[in-house]
């Protein structure tokens, strides 16, 4: 009987893992592309961790939920990941609250929270602890910023850093924990990796913030720092699509420079991963390459009116994939490649915004 139960459990888990892979295709094409590059010992854990974070994002992005409801569901979600809250009850209560502002793929993900959690429960204690820490910090941090979200933007760079940490920097830390748990060789570089991990996440997040300015504003939010634009003589409250005001462009370019500096830290992070771990390197390099190209398009098209205008083409994505995969083992070549990709982008004076 015990062998039958074990076999049944394994079959159910394989079905849940198949659902996880399918769900990733629906909620994030980028991660559905990069996660399969990871070695078998990491692939399922990172995919599951992404879905846990995506569920937290779905709560925060649902326009019909009040700030109080978002906080309540976020706290319940942390409870589900901790193991003290019933996953089925949470899913049933949340899914009926979702409107068309939540995509069909995200709605399906919420409805299948119990399947996601069965996969989570299959991982080791260190892996689950890394995921829980990330979800806990992310949900509490996002709730803090959602309460004050407005079209006026964040007050300054410090608040932008803090926001990016909650939504992406902590993900970089979680990935580092998972990488270190996977490999003793990587774990030997833990201190150096952690020093760069949040900056890595921030570079990717800042790139998305700049690309998604108009989509965020349509939801009543702006994550740009007011002080940066005010110092250039521009008030974010007057921002409109196709904006070509010199003050706005000056502020935008300063943020592009800061994002570029964080992406440079991301490359330093990747080069700390042993060269023979090509799967992990590809996972990181593909997202970094796409971010740098997106940042370039944002810089060269400052009066864009939607994220689609600066989104990189499928051909560009393919070029990133092929080129970085071919060079994944070669540190010197990767440095040359990314120096070339970043050439011409504005840079921050060394004393103005120190690197990680």
Structure report:
The chain has 356 residues and is an all-alpha fold. The chain is globular and about 65 Å long. The chain starts with a helix and ends in a 14-residue tail after the last helix. Helix 3 runs antiparallel to helix 4 and helix 14 packs antiparallel against helix 17.
Number of helices: 17
Largest sheet: none
**Alpha carbon gap, first and last residue:** 55 Å
* N-to-C order of helices and strands: HHHHHHHHHHHHHHHHH
β-strand amount: under 5%
- Helix proportion range: over 70%
Poorly predicted regions? none
Overall shape? globular
Give the averaged pLDDT, no decimals.
Answer: 92
Number of distinct beta strands: 0
Coarse structural class: mainly alpha
**Computed Rg:** 20 Å
How would you concisely characterize the structure shown here?
This protein is mainly alpha-helical and 356 residues long. The chain has helices at residues 2-27, 29-34, 40-61, 67-82, 87-95, 104-111, 113-120, 125-146, 157-182, 184-187, 190-211, 213-218, 226-230, 246-272, 278-300, 314-327, 331-342.
What keywords describe this structure?
356 residues; mainly alpha; 17 helices; 72% helix; 0% strand; globular
